[in-house]
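This is your field. Pick holes in the following sequence-structure pair:
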Amino acid sequence: YLKPDADILEIGAGDGAVLSMLVERGARATGFEMDAGAARFITERWGTPVLVGDFDRHDFAGTRFDAVIMAHLIEHLIDPVASLRTVRSLLRPGGTLLIETPNILHPKVSPRRVYSLAHNFHFSPRTLCRALHVAGFEPLHVRVFRRDSFQVVARPASGALPPSPQPSSQVIST
């Protein structure tokens, strides 16, 4: 799914290991990181550009990518569907999104760690595919690992982006 000469954005670049591997394979890789110290480390160690800030508020100024990678990030986001919609706007036609996240159906850690404060959402392959659909993606491939995580490869669905879900202001009385 990732071509050697592609422009690839990794959101949540961490220590830059994935970015360095992509560059070694001929990709033009860019990182995105909330932590300015981590971004500086990646740029100094690997020589790879890293954008810094809040992803959902960052102005990409029309920049588009062939692929976006989100590894163990989506479960930390405040509004994953809104973030996926932003990702969709960053992809060129025919672009690819690769997501890896913990699988709530097969946790390998204790409940205390699974339900940590750092995880705002918990996904199964089915619920992540549903979130991708609502955000305007078509899942192409799902790979479930024997350990606690899974990957989904998706592309923007053809046609218009589905309308954003609107919060209900209706009061339900019992």
Q: What stands out?
A: The mean pLDDT is 87. The helical segments are 17-24, 36-46, 80-90, 111-114, 125-134. Residues 32 and 51 are 5 Å apart (CA to CA). The first strand starts at residue 7 and ends at 11.
